[in-house]
Structure prediction request, 551 residues.
Amino acid sequence: MTEHKHFRRRTAALAATVAAVALVLTGCSTGTSDASATSSDTATPVPGGTLKVAFWDDQQGCIDPNQVYWIESRSIDRQVADSLTDQDPDTGKIVPWLATSWTVSPDATQYVFTLRDGVTFSDGEKLDATAVKTALDGTFALGAKSILGLTYLAGYGSTTVIDPTHVQVTFTKPNAAFLQATSTTTLAILAPKTYTETPEQRCAGAIVGSGAFTLDNYTAATSAHLTKRADYAWPSSLVKNQGAAYLDAIDITYIKEDSVRNGELTAGTIDIAWPRQPISDADQQVITAAGDTIESRPLPGISSIIVPNVTHGGPLADANVRNALQKSIDRKTYASTIFWADYPVVESVVDSTTPFATDESSLLAYDPDGAKKLLDAAGYTVGADGYRYKNGQELTLHYPLVVSGPGEQLLQDQLKQVGINLSLDVVTSAQSTQKLAAGDYDLTGTYLTRADPSVLGSAVDQATSKAASAVNSQDPTTAAAVSTLFAAGLQTSDDTARAAAYGDVQKELISTGSAFPIFERVQIAGVSSKVHGFAFTSEAFLRANDIWLEQ
Prediction:
């Protein structure tokens, strides 16, 4: 069971206690769930008003849910576009939404969905099996333009219309993660006319969904405006408000400066301050002192990890050096120093809210003495400057970064304690891309949000991903083992077997030094005291159906 704490005052602890969670992915019946939301507010909702949300940035500059990977844009999309299923944030359970029920073949190659009756898109077109086929075919046709969809639809064969309310999705190879994928914004079902637009037009805002709000306008990195649908009546079973939204509209802006964004919250200019990095402890105290609240949820998916380059003949080709690096990272000190005292310490290569996450703390224990012994065994001796050398060459690891912050500098200091020189090479985005493509680096960072452990494959499985984080991070033996475990996790719809496979994946990546977890990613939002009914989705995006404002 997954347990996490949503706190409304900074005095509450942030730490989450998490064990493996069983996803209900299979069978011939659907799951059901009581409505869930972060808020326990019992006051009577008051309709009306415009919610003002300020995000950090919009670097991708795209709002099409089928294409976008940017977290902030996916929060906007969740208000506009509905999905076949939804995922309970508390249990990981898949529950009905646009589909009322489903069946999954034992080998996870065939899914049949029964569709909800009476659903319409905001252009008046009815949701039916043909619309679902058009949406899935259209998303698959995006290919690499849909970075997430490419993985979510791995092995996609076809979608067949059985009748207006039944649709069958077939894969050419097992894809047990597909049911969870149907709960995401990436596989949201848009109106058929949307798929007549070019991908560029869709990115710019030419999208029509069946959600509780419509997208009126979107200007990349500047603003967006949403208006409620008065006739909306088909939210998922996780939503308390089973009718139209209480809010009249949602205004979105982007404010990159944390201090400015937080200041506008406490001044009452905005209602929700939504940063990319967690709001600092000091700023949280200012926010709560003003009478506002803090909401928090660890982002499921890949934790903030660093992966090695083992292919270019550098130091990290040596397993002893990789394992020494793993032991050199003091993750508890990192969490408390870069964030605050009770910030959760990362326990695996996936965050604690990810279904089937396992606690690998024992493999991530800080052990500088053990690291030094491994470096000795690798032939590196300590020089007069405190760094280690082998055959006259300093043990230097090059880490290209567009921005070097306190976290990287702390990591640099920790590695120096065992004699490793972590070179923080600040480069432009274009230079970073070139270095990754050329393999001209020793370490690179990655993360990705999805409430299913298969997300790891998008970054580190060489059979799935061609990213540098996959193709350069493992020797052939390790890569074969990792790919076999990922395949096992996708080949069956049995939860026990999936849990075992993904548990083994996590151990394999950490024990072989193929991934170095640095910190747990936590989504924190500053919320005005006027806001009631705030809720996170399972992927820590905003869900606005239950939100209402004091007038």
Summary: The longest helix spans residues 495-511.
